[in-house]
Amino acid sequence: MKPTKNLRCILAGIAVLLALIANVSAQDRLKISSAERGAWESAAPELGQRAGIFQKHGIVLDLVYTEGDNETLQRVISGSIEVGLGIGTTEALRAYIRGQPVRIIGANVTGASNYWYVLATSPIQKVKDLVGKTIAYATNGSSSHYDALDFSKEFRLNARLVPTGGVTATFRELTANHIDVGWAAPPFGIDELEQGKIRVIARANDVPKIRGETLIVLSTNAVTLEKRKEVLGRFMQAYRETIDWMYSDPAALRHYAEFARVSESFAQRLRDEFFTKSMLSPDQVTGLKVTMKESKIKLSRRQVSELIQIPPPRHNDSKGSSSWKSWFSH
Question: Is the model's pLDDT at 324 over the cut of 90?
């Protein structure tokens, strides 16, 4: 009896294994690339896959990390990857206007997580105290430079803007008392904030112009969009659900902390203080007129419609389902 029982267990195990193999083989695979491994704003594919959200929509992701957004964009253009995260909106516009087969299927980040800070011992307490002070930015023409200009203009600071290089160099300049206010982008500075060494004085998103502009997008190749539109629609639906989960389930913070190799308290501060849920909403690319004006790029309505093709959310109601089916059937 015992050998028979063991045989049944083995056969049952084989049956389960075959079922799993069949399920995996039935999943659609997508090659995804991101320039920033471990960044909260581009972690949705990694975290959603760990949570089984993409698998629920019949998708398995092959995740690849690149050296920068330019490499990611080039891989999208060549078709070697099917979805690229962390691509600058301006870079996507420029590629499109040059005739490259780029399409935007979602917003990645709207607004900016950059911030300005002072040492904990600084007498500066509020934005109004910045009048006439020296405020850091990275280099001329950088995003931090434009942010500093917009910030100074918005609050009429009449401050002196000073290029200080990267976030680490800026921190050195601040601690040496060469400047009054430093700039940074998370995750830099979170440890110093938790240790009470620095204080945040203002955030880039305090400026309405910055807060309302989509700076980073999700892109695909035009051929990929044509051939795999239904799959990309399911990918974006899973992406939305992953963002919802990242801001509602404590398990998401645990997964992220493990993935990024940070503490859960670090992960929570990064999420709650620097990346609001609305910043990661993929459903609308906003501030496009501002982006095109600053980039000196002109696109017609037809071109914008061709470039930006975001699949609508799929809802349980017939109206939502119909709009989703209509999107991938055209």
Answer: no
